[in-house]
Amino acid sequence: MKKDIILGGVGGQGILSIAAVIGYAAIDMGLFIKQAEVHGMSQRGGDVQSNLRISDREIFSDLIPQGKADLIISVEPMESLRYIPMLSPDGWLITNSEPFINIPNYPELEKIHNEIRSFPRHVLIEADKMAKEINAAKSANMIILGASSPFLGIEFEKLENAIKAIFGKKGDDVIQTNLNALNLGREFALKHIK
Amino acid sequence: MQKLMLLGDEAIAQGAIDAGITGIYAYPGTPSTEITEYVEHSREAKEKNIKAYWAANEKTAVEGAIGMAYAGRRTMACMKHVGLNVAADAFINSAITGTNGGMIVVAADDPSMHSSQNEQDSRFYGKFSLLPILEPTNQQEAYDMVHYGFELSEKYHLPVLMRITTRLAHSRSGVVRKESRDQNTMQLPKDLRQYILLPAIARTRYKGLLNVQKDLITEGENSPYNKYIDGADKKLGIITFGIAFNYLMENFPDRVVPYPVLKISQYPAPRKMIEKICKECDEVIVFEEGAPMIEELLRGYLNNSLKIKGRLDDTLPRDGELNPNIVGAALGLEISKSAAIPSIVVGRPPSLCEGCSHIDTYLALNEAIAPYGKGRVFADIGCYTLGALPPFEAINSCVDMGASITMAKGASNAGLLPSVAVIGDSTFTHSGMTGLLDCVNDKTPVTVVILDNSITAMTGGQKSAATGKVADICKGLGVEPEHLHIIKPLRKNHEENVQIFKNELEYQGVSVIIPTRECIVSLNKRMREKFKEKKAAV
Predict the structure, then answer these.
(1) ipTM of this complex > 0.90?
(2) CATH code, domain with B242
(3) Is there a domain that residue B457 lies in?
(4) Which of residues 115-144 of A touch B (CB under 8 A)?
(5) Reduced to 3 states, what is the DSSP secondary structure of residue B449?
(6) Are residues A102 and B351, on separate chains, in Cβ contact within 8 Å?
(7) Which residues of B touch A64 (CB under 8 A)?
């Protein structure tokens, strides 16, 4: 078993919370993991990514080779496209549809969405809107993680357990909100890929 | 033993805690910062009374470590690669003094310059100072090598340099811990003249350092971290250093490389092993994450008869970090073709945060300086360097820590008037104070803007050595009180601030303006914590 995942977004959007949940679940399953992060200057509103690698065998490189990523999970639509060179020809592109606009020349959103739709294996999800609808505005990332869950090769229950462990300190309400978000994302993806 | 998910940086920190350090010294710098932060926040470190000291700069950090090791304790000093330039005087001389307690200096290099102004290779400092270097391949080695490094340091009474690069520093993996060791008791050096580098003593000590080199090479030959892995096909021999080994293995999914491979993680590089691979193989390819330091040695200045491939013959790019694709392509393996980035994607450079105090400072400075024209603002290293980008385009330099003030002085001396320096509070106490003293002594016409946001912001909000002290330091250095202004960079104060800038740009002496407002990220974080506390109290 091997899953190579690129997590994409903008500095400050919290892509590492997604990585933390997947990482926790992977370790729980006794898998090897490596996760390269971006720290430093780019965190100030620049494009950031994380290379998350999960395998049942020892992993050597901290970086995923080009064209070998099984998944791109992005919390921002344009950022999801930035990592296309990393995606394997049969890989999945899962991304939030709602943009984070902090540059003056952000492209027309519809064109970005069309570009994403041009990939045969994609999930384009209105994570922020869906999060607001369940009063979980801060849990958009967990909706995106839920939408990625059918492709991760990790048992869904393990992801739920990871959320319980990671958000444990924050109380039952926070855990439940995040679990709801995770489930909502998953349902959307399962419907979408049928 | 317990298994932890740790960044390479954190593995080093946990290793240092478990290997019995008494204290760790550092100035923050990407990608090294998380080492000291980890110790700072570690409950275990607190229980064991292990202290993390944020120093004013890398030189004072290394000197603190030399002193702690003088007193017989184990210690570590951490910095980014360019920080080792600042600490070089202390570091190089620590090779001559040697050490009493174990001492490791960690330099985190940043090939490809993800967050740095150059990609210098710190291994040159190890070679230059004749000290052993450890270059871990992965997070587990990073952890283990701290224990090993302290043993090595105490065996030879020499500091050890540990060199890591960005991808190891900022990548997480599982690390199995070892038995932890008690701290050393305090003990003075046996020879109380050991650290007195008067020429007569220094000459003797230097000879001692030279004499031990052959033993250090033997250590490299026998190191558990240097391995000769045989392969049947002798057409090619592969030498990897540090994390380059990972990129090699990544290209062989069944983990079997058909060629002999020499994996090196300890220097001086093992001479016999290198000789063996060079003799056995028709050609040798060298993978170094950084400069072609060993490749150049093997090749010889006159390109001796060996067939060496690497960064110096275009087999590999001369600059930038390695990755699995670059290494695979150099071996002639087929690299999977990948799609291009869709043309619709535009760049998203980092930018100043919304509500950042630097924005208001730059808006005021830009307006005040506009009549004189562009090209007269010398800046420094920190978040405010982002003022170089649109929409501000407010600054014209970023060279090395503290250079803003001294470059403004030089330009002013050359006739560029007005001449402005922009420097952050932490950078000011790191290396700016001495330059300001130069200006005061020379009465140079310069306007020095010290951006005081009460924190070392760019590296994630470490305590700044300058907090609450900037104005007093300036006064103490002799800045005239009537040309020293503390302003609050806010939209509503814009007109008033522009006027202060305008007045001081005209002054033919040293003026200092200190825009003072807390970093917005640190303010938000503080407010969140306060809110949590309040909630918990209810």
Answers:
(1) yes
(2) 3.40.50.920
(3) yes
(4) 115
(5) strand
(6) yes
(7) 324
pLDDT in tens, chain A (194 residues): 999 999 999 988 888 889 999 999 998 999 999 999 887 776 788 999 999 999 999 999 999 999 999 999 999 999 999 999 999 999 999 999 999 999 999 999 999 999 999 999 999 999 999 999 999 888 999 999 999 999 999 999 999 999 999 998 888 999 999 999 999 999 999 998 87
Q: Kindly list the structural domains of chain A, giving each domain's residue range(s) and its CATH number in brackets, ordered by start.
A: 2-193 (3.40.920.10)
Contact B6, B133 (CB under 8 A): no
Residue holding tokens 């391995």? B227
Domain of residue B233 covers 227-330
B315 and B203 in a common domain: no
Grouped pLDDT means (10 residues each) for chain B, 538 residues: 89 98 97 97 98 98 98 98 98 98 98 95 98 98 98 98 97 95 98 97 98 98 97 97 98 94 98 95 97 94 83 96 97 87 94 94 98 97 94 97 98 98 98 98 98 91 91 98 98 98 98 97 90 79
Q: Does B508 fall in a domain? A: yes
> Is B529 among the domain residues?
no
Query: Which residues of A, range 82-101, sit inside 8 Å of B by Cβ?
Result: 82, 84-88
In a domain, B348, yes or no: no
* CA of B173 vs chain A CAs: smallest distance (Å): 5
Cβ-defined contact of A32 to B174 (cutoff 8 Å): yes
Residue A38 contacts B, CB cutoff 8 Å: yes
A36 at B interface, C-beta within 8 A: yes
β partners of residue B287: B240
DSSP B101-154: S-EEEEEEE-TT-SSSS----THHHHHHHT--EE--SSHHHHHHHHHHHHHHHH
Asked if B146 and B36 sit in the same domain, the reply is yes
Contact across the interface for B243 and A62, Cβ inside 8 Å: yes
State how far the Cα of B245 lies from the Cα of B243, in Å rounded to an integer: 5
Q: What CATH number corresponds to the domain at position B42?
A: 3.40.50.970
Looking at the 3D structure of chain B, how many domains does it have? 3
The answer to whether residues B54 and B140 belong to one domain is yes
Chain A nearest-CA residue for B335: A66
Q: Domain boundary at B176, B211, B246, which? A: B211
Q: Which two tokens stand for residue B65?
A: 């470590």
Nearest CA in chain B to A170: B532
Residues B204 and B232 grouped into a single domain: no
Q: Which residues contact B3 (CB under 8 A, 6 or more apart)?
A: B174, B175, B176, B177
